[in-house]
Amino acid sequence: MKFDTPATKNPIDRLAVVGHPVDRIDGPLKTTGTARYAYEHHDAVARPAYGYVLGAGIAKGSIHSMDLAAAKAAPGVLAIVTADNAGPLGKGDKNTATLLGGPTIEHYHQAIALVVAETFEQARWAARRIRVDYGPVDGTFDLARAKESASKPASGKPDTAVGDFGNAFAAAPVQLDATYTTPDQSHAMMEPHASTALWDGDTLVIWTSNQMVAWGVADVAKTLGIPKEKVHLMSPFIGGGFGGKLFVRADAVLAALGARAAKRPVKVALPRPLMFNNTTHRPATIQRIRIGATREGRITAIAHESWSGDLPGGKPETAVDQTRLLYAGANRMTAMRLAVLDLAEANAMRAPGEAPGMMALEIAIDEMAEKLGIDPVQFRIANDTQVDPEHPERPFSKRRLVDCLAIGAEKFGWKARNPHPAGTRDGRWLVGFGVAAAFRNNLVTRSGARVRLGKDGVVTVETDMTDIGTGSYTIIAQTAAEMMGVPLHRVVVRLGDSDYPVSSGSGGQWGGNSSTAGVYAACTKLREAVATKLGLPPDADFADGRVRAGSRDVAVADAARNGELVAEDHMEYGDLDKRYQQSTFGAHFVEVRVDAATGETRVKRMLAVCAAGRILNPKTARSQVIGAMTMGVGAALSEHLVVDRYAGFFVNHDLAGYEVPVHADIPHLDVVFLDETDPMSSPMKAKGVAELGICGVAAAIANAIHHATGVRVRDYPVTLDKLIDRLPLLAREEES
Amino acid sequence: MNESDAMNPARREALALGRDMLVGGAAACWAGSPSARAASPRRDAPVMRKLTLRVNGAAQALELDTRTTLLDALREHLHLTGTKKGCDHGQCGACTVIAGGRRINACLSLAVMHDGDEVTTIEGLGKPGHLHPMQAAFVRHDAYQCGYCTPGQICSSVAMLEELRHGIPSHAAADVAAAPAWTPDELRERMSGNICRCGAYSNIIEAITEVAGAQP
């Protein structure tokens, strides 16, 4: 099915099941520990051997020699895989560095060996017996020092310009020119990257924790040099991804190689302290933002430049993208430059581009509003645009940013905000309110599904779509129930298996809308098959387990009485996403309390108002947003991969050193979804929401801290050491 | 370790074995050539130990490498994979189980230290179709997303409510001598050893609050 004209009334609009806050259908499995993740398929894999990964101890250089003798002699060892003995390996299209290093080492903790043993303890012990003689060479690890050598990236749009930014900025009566930094960040999902692999003849059967099944199949096949048809990849449950499991990683490739070498099924999980330097991360950025405005607060010139780093052949963090679309202004430019850094591979993490970009832009907007003496909510509203500012003939499909801001301000009690920073104190606490816009583009992508109507009337959906905590199982079940007119409990959903039709996968907040649109397409075909079988017209009505047309009223299940009916289709897209700019919008409101003496920041309350098309399940969608808000709190206050600029690695590579928010950091979170449908996105009229939720959060918190303390911090995270020597009330007490 | 543990010779011996293993491990990391170590293979031969765990009410006889954590004993030997390995370093709480009535990180405890102990895992709290009230509350409040920290959150919260009931104080209490208040801040403080990267905290506290309210 092709979606190339705006959606009109369709079976989803009935909203008998879709749009309801139903509990997750996989909830009983997840809460009882019976959902099986990649390392846990004991039922299917008897007596697996255990693989333990050894990571490189240098950041750049080569391996002169590896002495495996002691490790091979260690009890229980079955095989040791290294680049020396693994045979020729390719590199996945989605990987920047190779997944098994040696002799060349591209980054610290790049995998260089897998020890396979009878038990985990034996594999771990033996891995420590491997002696490696390295030949280290100097690398580049410091973005600030590499900035001057950064070059124009080969891909994407590194430079954009409309009007005459230089002259307009120079002529603007009010100007802001500020530089912001965001640090390297880690996905730190709770389930480590893990795989269980076995060889069935020349076919690789692999359970792995991966967001994108078809990408995974392609890159496993390419890396191992086998046909895609010889890879059966399954990822039914995934313990978090956030972009960190978009791509095949060392666990999958090494489990496959280990299983081949040991002639046994092998399972491999990356040890937590290896993950931070072995896998991908969100790269640090340096961002310069210039805004010129009239004294009345109209933006006339806006520029956003960003520098980031990656390994050779890598890509930039596209932190300037939202600035091309978010605010009006006749004269504008953006630029991205990419430095070569020899840290682990930089790549996508929840809302790549917009998340760090909004961290900077939305502080800049706050700073400009302050310069102008205009309320920051009003300043944003005054500079709204309903068209793509670079292409005014191209409207947004739906854009309710102004509603998000206005409704949020009302619900949050924004008018109680003291207009003066550092003006509100509650005992030991300095109190501040902060706001930021939320913005993330909506991406649509081809997605397929197969739908079966069984003799028992049960509808079964099969697609290689993944559920990384997003609620895919449930919204897909809701979609099929709505389309086939059956109750939710009569739908079975099977996901994450390369035997099923290729879906959008989970990433870029495209999965919810795209995968359900694919199910819509397959169900449309199944409805036709049912109607034909029952001798009913194609426009028959499916509801309450019945198919009705004219005076005929038949049970849906009757169509399958003599045998299962199966339909398969996919949704593909025309050019509606080119003719209309499809984006999602929101507003974040935050109250923080900063300890007047220590500078410790506590988040008191948070509200997000989101306009993101039809909300397919308000319960799971809300969870996506509160989860993103929580990750935004981490970005604002604590998350920072600290680079050892001499040895070239992230120092705080575990969950004790890399501080993600815990229960005590997060208050009750409020989320409001505006009632909206977007007929340009798909027949579901839905858009993404999981990444919108993080965009702008950190800036709203930083702005609230500024409002509480009067201290403007432009370098994330906003830790107390950046505040403590400038806290106003403490200074006043010292004077007295 | 309490008095009775100290008097239990089997347990004392097991702990001594554990220490020996750690010392040996550390020494081997820093000293000696690999060939010297390879020449004395018996030195790193696994030390096996028989033990019995009482898991979810059933006695489980095991013979384990003494390096095996309680977590890996449950997951890899008893195939109770509801208890999750998130970090293996006591930093995330995904492996929380209830041993002897207390919540512990199963990754920080060797299995041989639990010979004869009662251990309750997520599988022992409830099953699909027969959910524990806390499991049901987690479903109702969508107090999870990916589900990987969830068993640990649930085991932790069930044991945590017992701690509150017994008046065990926390950092969040203004007066540690007074009976702790059943406030969201108390619950948040006491649950902070269980990380949820998906960020379901707001919903988890609401689920726990509902169960706590139903069982004063």
UniProtKB/TrEMBL annotation, chain A:
Coiled coil: none annotated. Residues 32-138 form the Aldehyde oxidase/xanthine dehydrogenase a/b hammerhead domain. It comes from the Bacteria. Gene3D superfamilies: Aldehyde oxidase/xanthine dehydrogenase, a/b hammerhead, Aldehyde oxidase/xanthine dehydrogenase, molybdopterin binding domain. InterPro entries: Ald_Oxase/Xan_DH_a/b (IPR000674), Ald_Oxase/Xan_DH_a/b_sf (IPR036856), Ald_Oxase/xanthine_DH-like (IPR016208), AldOxase/xan_DH_MoCoBD1 (IPR008274), AldOxase/xan_DH_MoCoBD2 (IPR046867), AldOxase/xan_DH_Mopterin-bd_sf (IPR037165), PaoC-like (IPR049648). GO terms for molecular function: iron ion binding; oxidoreductase activity. PANTHER family: ALDEHYDE OXIDOREDUCTASE MOLYBDENUM-BINDING SUBUNIT PAOC (PTHR11908:SF123), XANTHINE DEHYDROGENASE (PTHR11908). This is Xanthine dehydrogenase YagR molybdenum-binding subunit. It comes from Dokdonella fugitiva.
TrEMBL record, chain B:
The keyword Metal-binding applies. One of its GO terms (cellular component) is periplasmic space. Residues 49-125 form the 2Fe-2S ferredoxin-type domain. One of its GO terms (molecular function) is metal ion binding. The keyword Cell membrane does not apply. Pfam families: Fer2 (PF00111), Fer2_2 (PF01799). Keywords: 2Fe-2S, Iron, Iron-sulfur, Metal-binding, Oxidoreductase. CDD domains: fer2 (cd00207). PANTHER family: ALDEHYDE OXIDOREDUCTASE IRON-SULFUR-BINDING SUBUNIT PAOA, OXIDOREDUCTASE, IRON-SULPHUR BINDING SUBUNIT-RELATED-RELATED. NCBIfam families: PRK11433.1 (NF008514). This is Xanthine dehydrogenase YagT iron-sulfur-binding subunit. It comes from Dokdonella fugitiva.
